[in-house]
Automatic annotation (TrEMBL):
<feature type="domain" description="Apple">
    <location>
        <begin position="345"/>
        <end position="429"/>
    </location>
</feature>
<keyword id="KW-0325">Glycoprotein</keyword>
<dbReference type="InterPro" id="IPR000719">
    <property type="entry name" value="Prot_kinase_dom"/>
</dbReference>
<keyword id="KW-0732">Signal</keyword>
<keyword id="KW-1003">Cell membrane</keyword>
<dbReference type="InterPro" id="IPR036426">
    <property type="entry name" value="Bulb-type_lectin_dom_sf"/>
</dbReference>
<protein>
    <recommendedName>
        <fullName>Receptor-like serine/threonine-protein kinase</fullName>
        <ecNumber>2.7.11.1</ecNumber>
    </recommendedName>
</protein>
<comment type="similarity">
    <text>Belongs to the protein kinase superfamily. Ser/Thr protein kinase family.</text>
</comment>
<dbReference type="InterPro" id="IPR000858">
    <property type="entry name" value="S_locus_glycoprot_dom"/>
</dbReference>
<keyword id="KW-0547">Nucleotide-binding</keyword>
<dbReference type="Pfam" id="PF08276">
    <property type="entry name" value="PAN_2"/>
</dbReference>
<dbReference type="InterPro" id="IPR001480">
    <property type="entry name" value="Bulb-type_lectin_dom"/>
</dbReference>
<feature type="transmembrane region" description="Helical">
    <location>
        <begin position="441"/>
        <end position="461"/>
    </location>
</feature>
<keyword id="KW-0472">Membrane</keyword>
<dbReference type="InterPro" id="IPR003609">
    <property type="entry name" value="Pan_app"/>
</dbReference>
<feature type="compositionally biased region" description="Polar residues">
    <location>
        <begin position="804"/>
        <end position="823"/>
    </location>
</feature>
<dbReference type="InterPro" id="IPR001245">
    <property type="entry name" value="Ser-Thr/Tyr_kinase_cat_dom"/>
</dbReference>
Length: 831
């Protein structure tokens, strides 16, 4: 009996030993040690693993490399991309001719390293860089490159790892390219590839098959000037190396070895930088090429310019007009634009008697320069003269790292950024500049005529509106009392129903695992928000009005009404709703990066918010507010603007959410009173918090507070270490008075590089938090932030400077959406 037990124990131990040796012990494959599905080898530092995997629920098996220590593994390299093994009989081994091969159960070679010279005693090793190398002799002899017969780094898949090379040979034009997967679940070679094109000035390009899909713009010695935000705090930098053998390659390194990240060409052609987010336990993407049509090569055709902030995104450069005006109007921009008036050279060639004056140049700031530049001089002051002297020069630009560049022929793929980029000078006939006076007369006439027509129209419209408004108000109030559902029906009737999907409760219950707590994203003011995944795989956010409270129905209805009427890239999008029994549910698009406060007030995540990103977030919020206050057909006051109501998409673009308290202003109403003051302490303007008066200006106040939070990375409710009696506003004001406003900025921002911008933002933040009469409007805020006004007004003391007593208990810092408070002013106003 005991003997038997001992024997059992022994076999168990020996089996364990064996398993340990087999799975953990090795980082090599040799003539005698192979790996058989599902075996694997792990690099000596434990960072990378080579093994068998199935990318989707199919039985297809591939050999690949992935991060060993990360639960949500993403495959970095695949051996048999186009040839899966259909069962789990695969073996990775060293063949008789010394090559590393993958065989299936029938001993057919599925994949081979395919080194031609026959070698004996070779072995393969997985290194801590993620590289799989085939070397002469046995392991641990890879002291230098000379022993390497083959390496996976020379045969990249879709992932560009640190120290890998994206190379092109100058002489043979032979390229090492990265190719995308066919789809996220199919590693076979997809249609997109990434390569380094040398042209005149090196440029990284993504191809869709053989068509140009995206380009980085020229390399200036430290960045590609057509990508903005290319620098990352974690990157030691990109380098372009011209090695001795006539090969030019691009490579990069991480400054911090512990940072787990790489670059990836996704199957949809987008090039991103995933990084491992420790707390969220998931990969997050930092974008390089953005998922916008402007990033697609030549979207606007020749002489068109793309700007994601305009509608439509394409327009012709000044001095040009659509080549095919009908197609252009239909949004088919492929034909591009043509020059309106011919240049001096053409006039001479055409033999006109008078060639007229010399051409001029139109400056476009923050531009992504067009494709295929020619270099011609290193001296900035020569650019314009040289361009004028060459009839084929259509545009020029200057970069300190490159020199003068010019373009001939069609100018394709110009994009307008809001920051960075280069100054691009477009050559135009002198007549395009000389018509200002005539233009002024035309504009003045148009304005006068327009105003008259407008006044007449307004007159009639208001009459009509008044009659309707009276009717609607009586109906609306009655139904609120009677039945909520009827009212919803009515509101939906008014809203844009075609686009709104009515979901079934059952469907939503399945999508959110029965509204389980694990799926809960946040606790909103009037009910929880859940993450859900529909049966088609689409991720959604589901806000369920809590039944228990019996409260918030009004806000629910309000949100439905407001959000159905607005549509803007910086407002969160509603996908549908569900009204069944006493359930009232709104379905929104899912925002993978949660809300701004989870980033901004988290010491680690904050690192990712460099100044560019912060200023992008500020810009987005401004655009949304401009839309709400001015540009949409309605005028909407949000009333609860705060960091937790700013959601962030995959690329950290902001979207304003939560319209539960928003108010639509009718006609020329521009201020209203309420006895039901709702909002969040610290963000509420004094006239609103105290007297219930709200207007555009009260949103501006909240925006000002938000702006200071974004700059400083501190909560407005946090206590200021330097002086505990001060609020964030008070602290900002104190520093401002001392002339030390830069000290407010988050140390995570490299303030020196962006000194003027940061100062300007603090200034605007303080202007926004003054008393209502002194606050700027949002259009003014935008001009101020963009530096369109040379002299910024100096702010007066903000409305509050002392710390407010915190009125709502706030024990749950981790909950995403801190509830808004609700004060009834009945006692103040009496009733
Ligand atoms: C190995 O390379 C040769 C040419 O170099 C090619 O003809 C052959 O198909 C390759 N074999 C495999 C298994 O990839
Ligand atoms: C290969 O390795 C074996 C055992 O390690 C050794 O006996 C043999 O000489 C080696 N052959 C060559 C060509 O290096
Ligand atoms: C690589 O290592 C081998 C032996 O370890 C040595 O003979 C050779 O000179 C080294 N090559 C380089 C380029 O360092
Ligand atoms: C799994 O991948 C294979 C290709 O490797 C593909 O043919 C198949 O459709 C995929 N299955 C699913 C469910 O995506
Ligand atoms: C890539 O090219 C193919 C074939 O030309 C085309 O069908 C597809 O739409 C293109 N993909 C993108 C994202 O443009
Ligand atoms: C776009 O316009 C061009 C001519 O300007 C035409 O040839 C092409 O068919 C149009 N494409 C579509 C999708 O309408
Ligand atoms: C003008 O530009 C064309 C086209 O790039 C080039 O071939 C030609 O050499 C240039 N001429 C002069 C005088 O620089
Ligand atoms: C390249 O451009 C970037 C951004 O415009 C600039 O900061 C950098 O100094 C330039 N590099 C060189 C070598 O001029």
């Amino acid at each position: 009996m005991t003997l038997l037990r001992k024997a059992n124990l022994f076999t168990l131990v020996s089996m364990l030993c064996c398993a340990l040796k087999f799975c953990v012990g090795g980082d090599v494959i040799t003539a005698t040690e192979h790996i058989q599905d599902p075996g694997s080898i792990v690099s000596s530092g434990g960072l990378y693993k080579l093994g068998f995997f199935s990318p989707n629920s199919s039985a297809n098996r591939y050999v690949g490399i992935w991060h060993n220590k990360i639960p949500a593994y993403s495959v970095l390299w695949v051996a048999n991309r186009d040839k899966p093994i259909l069962d789990s009989t695969g073996v990775m081994m060293i063949s008789d001719d010394g090559n590393l091969v993958l065989m299936n159960g029938k001993k057919e070679v599925i994949w081979s390293s395919n080194v031609s010279t026959s070698i004996t005693n070779s072995s393969a090793q997985i290194l801590d860089s993620g590289n799989l190398v085939l070397i002469k002799g046995s392991s641990s002899s890879v002291a230098n490159d000379s022993g390497i017969l083959w390496q996976s780094f020379d045969h990249g898949s879709d992932s560009f790892l640190s120290t890998m090379k994206l190379s092109t040979s100058v002489r043979t034009n032979e390229k090492h390219v990265f190719t995308s997967w066919e789809s996220p679940s199919d590693p076979s070679i997809g249609s997109f590839s990434l390569s380094l094109e040398l042209l005149n000035i090196p440029e990284v390009v993504i191809w869709n098959g053989s068509t140009l899909y995206w380009r980085s713009g020229p390399w200036n010695g430290s960045v590609f000037i057509g990508i903005y935000n290319m620098r990352s705090v974690y990157l030691d930098g990109w380098t372009l190396v011209n090695d001795k053998e006539g090969t030019i390659y691009l490579t990069y390194n991480f400054a911090e070895a512990s940072y787990i990240s790489y670059f990836l060409l996704k199957s949809n052609g987008i090039f991103v930088q995933p990084y491992w987010h420790e707390e969220q336990n998931d990969w997050q993407n930092v974008w390089l090429t953005r998922d916008s049509l402007c990033d697609v090569y030549g979207t606007c055709g020749p002489f068109g310019i793309c700007d994601t902030n305009t509608v439509p995104i394409c327009s012709c450069l000044r001095g040009f007009e659509p080549k095919n005006i009908e197609e252009w109007g239909r949004g088919n921009w492929s034909a591009g634009c043509v020059r309106r008036s011919s240049l001096q050279c053409e006039r001479i060639i055409n033999g006109r008697t008078k060639a007229g004056k010399e051409d001029g140049f139109l400056k476009i700031e923050n531009a992504k320069v067009p494709y295929y530049a020619v270099l011609f001089s290193p001296l900035e002051d020569q650019c314009q003269k040289l361009c004028l002297n060459n009839c084929s020069c259509a545009a020029y630009a200057y970069d300190a790292g490159i020199g003068c560049m010019y373009w001939s022929g069609d100018l394709i793929d110009i994009q307008k950024f809001s920051i960075e980029g280069a100054d691009l000078y477009i050559r135009l006939a002198h007549t395009e500049f000389g018509e200002k006076r005539d233009l002024r007369v035309i504009i003045a006439t148009a304005v006068i005529v327009g105003t008259i027509v407008f006044i007449v129209l307004c007159f009639f419209w208001r009459k009509l509106k008044k009659r309707r408004a009276v009717r609607r108000r009586t109906e609306g109030e009655a139904s609120l009392e009677v039945s909520g559902e009827n009212m919803l029906g009515e509101k939906l009737g008014k809203a844009n129903v075609q686009e709104l999907v009515l979901y079934k409760l059952e469907e939503l219950a399945t999508a959110t695992s029965n509204f389980s707590d694990t799926n809960r994203l946040a606790q909103g003011g009037f009910g929880p928000v859940y993450k859900g995944r529909l049966s088609n795989g689409k991720e959604i956010a589901v806000k369920r009005l809590s039944k228990a409270s019996g409260q918030g129905f009004r806000e629910f209805m309000n949100e439905m009404e407001v959000i159905c009427k607005v549509q803007h890239q910086n407002l969160v999008k509603i996908l549908g709703c569900c009204v069944e029994g006493d359930e009232n549910i709104i379905i929104y698009e899912f925002m993978p990066n949660k809300s701004l406060d989870t980033f901004l007030f988290d010491p680690l995540k904050r690192e990712h918010l460099d100044w560019r990103r912060r200023s992008n977030i500020i810009d987005g919020i401004c655009r949304a507010l401009l839309y709400l206050h001015r540009d949409s057909r309605l005028r909407i006051i949000h009333r609860d603007l705060k960091a937790s109501n700013i959601l962030l998409d995959e690329e950290l673009n902001p979207k304003i959410s939560d319209f539960g308290m928003a108010r639509i202003f009718e006609g020329n109403e521009d201020q209203a009173n309420t006895r039901r003051v709702m909002g969040t302490y610290g963000y509420m303007a004094p006239e609103y918090a105290m007297e219930g008066r709200f207007s555009e200006k009260s949103d501006v106040f909240s925006f000002g507070v938000l702006l200071l939070e974004i700059i400083s990375g501190r909560r407005n409710t946090s206590s200021i270490e330097e002086d505990r009696s001060l609020s964030l506003l008070g602290f900002a004001w104190k520093l401002w008075k001392e002339g030390n406003a830069l000290a407010l900025a988050d140390p995570k921002i490299s303030v020196r590089r962006f000194e003027t911008e940061v100062l300007r933002c603090v200034n605007v933040g303080l202007l926004c938090t003054q008393l209502a009469k002194d606050r700027p409007t949002i259009p003014t805020v935008i001009s101020l932030l963009h530096g369109e006004m040379v002299d910024l007004p100096s702010p007066n003391q903000p409305a509050y400077t002392e710390r407010q007593p915190i009125q709502h208990t706030d024990g749950s810092e981790q909950s995403q959406n801190r509830g808004s408070i609700n004060v009834t002013l009945a006692s103040i106003e009496g009733r």
